[in-house]
Amino acid sequence: MPVNLPTNILRSFVSIVDTGSMLQASEQVFLTQSALSLQIKRLEELVQQSLFHREGRRLVLTQPGAVLLDYARRVLNLHDEAVAAVTAGKFAGPARVGMVQDFAETMLTGLLAQFAELHPEAEILARVAGTAELQELLGRRELDVIVGFAAANAADALAVTPMAWFGATDLLDREVLPLAVLESPCRFREAAMHALEDAGVRYRIAVETPNLSTLRAAVHAGLGVTCRTHLFLSDLPTAEDARLPPLPKVACIVQSGELLDDACTRLATLTRALVAER
Q1: Residue 87 neighbours by CB distance under 10 Å
Q2: Whole-model pTM?
Q3: Model confidence at 93, in pLDDT bands (50, 70, 90)?
């Protein structure tokens, strides 16, 4: 008898690899960590190979796991294509949306609520990551709609907003400016560092985090000055001072995949409307 690999378990497997942890994957596929662990155990039993090993707290693919990953992506893409073709415009699901953290914190709840009202039967997968990673996933047809940032002159810009400095103004009196930033790659991190270097302002990275809420907490605590937008971090103290150099503008973009079914097309339309309102 041939071995059958359930697509839901393959989807969970790919999510764990893409997010780098059980916790983040559980948020993406809407399963508990224990349920995910059971799925991976079942998958390992089916292929009779260990798929992950641990390096400290990190999950790292084994050689068989790396081989399976490539096939899993291809199987899922073909599966989704087949369902979309057979349903001929009916909801094929899941609808897969990706957003940078700024939008996820301010817009995701409203977007999902509107979409669920229009498509109560829909399965929704949400991914939070940087723009470059989201665009890569969109290019691999693993996301249907993404929301991110781009240069202010981007052709597909839906809104353009200025970057601004945020933080306690007394930090500006220090000989070396403490900077709070997200981990690289980050458009705002690069803009802040380039602006300070061009202006000859000495700085040090005082806080570096992958998480926007941690960055906000660090700025509120007076640990450093950061660069974001008024649009998405309006609750932070603004460090408006002539001693800080001007910053560029940034564009908000929404991109979607090709050959979307009706529900995913609606998701893209709703997303563009919400971003344009920001």
Answers
A1: 13
A2: 0.63
A3: low
